Amino acid sequence: MDVTDALKDLSLDQAYAAQAELILSINRQISGWKIGATSLDSQKRLGLKDPFFGPVFEEDIFKSDEQVPLFQTQKNSVETEICLRINSDFQIPELNHPHRSMQALDLSVGLAFEIVCPRFEGGMQNAGRMAITDGGINHAVILGEFIDWQLFDPQKFEVKLEKNGSKASNGDFNSQIWQHHRDPLSWLAQRPELQGKQLKAGCIIMTGTMTGVIPIDIGDKVIAQSPDLGVVRATFKKA
Hints:
CATH architecture: Alpha-Beta Complex
Largest sheet: 8 strands, mixed
CATH class: Alpha Beta
Number of strands: 15
Order of helices and strands: HHEHEEEEEEHEEEHEEEEE
Strand content: 35-45%
CATH superfamily: Fumarylacetoacetase-like, C-terminal domain
CATH topology: Fumarylacetoacetate hydrolase, domain 2
Number of domains: 1
């Protein structure tokens, strides 16, 4: 059995344990978390029945209009997502009280790109729990501007994605499994792997793609626009 087959056969607990070992071995600052497989389409593509999470490292976070380095040897894709930013320290509550502190949470909402890039053979199709062991297949995050979460109506949200000046995809919040844009944080707070951890002020939560998974390459330019959350742009250079 090769490594890929062995990783596919991991239990959920084993996959998150492997992810934790990866985080320890990299020894980099975690500044947020990404949630993947947040739509029925993405779950079908990955061969999963539920969402999963992985770390976002500080050095992989970029601002809109910055150039983002890509590795030529890897298959890179862009996802347009709603990003939640926590503006004050938040202690993840106990499992039996997941919503106790949610109402008073100081939270902002913004438009963002996530660059995903599987580092295992076969790509994302039927990747299963390999996506968990691979740190959530996150490569980079590009952040736009943020607004107060109470000013945002997810049911009216729409976004358009262009690549190199041409339409690439459209999306809205209704493509997600979430009912409210605060739901991803509630879901994350209930993960047993994160119990007892603190989310520091400035921590970001990437909530899943609304525009599918669009392949990108070095030299490409992408722009996402939303009447509610403004614009986020990125260009890509050789790492």
